Structure prediction request, 236 residues.
Amino acid sequence: MKDLYQFFDDESSTYTYLLIDADTKEAVIIDPVDQHLNQYMTLLANEHLKLKLVLETHAHADHITSAGALCSLTGARAATPAHCKITAAEIQLADGQALIFGKQQVIQAIHTPGHTAGAMTYFWNGKLFTGDSLLINGCGRTDFQNGDAGALYDSITRRLFSYPDETLVYPCHDYDGNTFSTIGHERRHNQRIAGRSREEFIRIMDALDLPPPKMIDKAIPANMKLGLNLRHAAGS
Ligand code: FE
Prediction:
């Protein structure tokens, strides 16, 4: 049985991941998007999966999560980075904390601040789910939610690039149709950071001058509550 499903939201170019323990059929979802709730529920039902945990890499500014709704519908527990202050989540994750599901499946939380102050990467089974900290040939912006370009440089170069070359990278977004990368490829080819000094990286990030995400005023307050779960849970 497949142990990883990848979903894509066209509107926000967001990837969502479903991790599966084949022995027990227990599952974990990372960064679910609200419009795709039914798609996740259908897959869980069709594959007879039991959702145990719903993880967020950070409080997203460009889409609304379906974490709250998934927890209401399945009995899964939400786990979010403690520094994101998503107080509605039952589990507040500290750096290095391990989450267990299935038969000895371990997910490790790695604090990778910079895109947002609280952002976490999750490591499971040779794969890094990097959120917006490290994208394929890019990285998340650092100009809101206490973003910090210097902190992001340190998170990527000291923490993520400390993993072996063959470690797979699964980001929260891709705008070019890529589905995954590796640490070795990003270390050598990522245009934002490969071969650049910390100062150079900070200059590049400070000069981006991007417009705010369209959804920011709606998405962040909703995501601090794990999304608009009551609407979904009521089935309307
Ligand atoms: Fe983000």
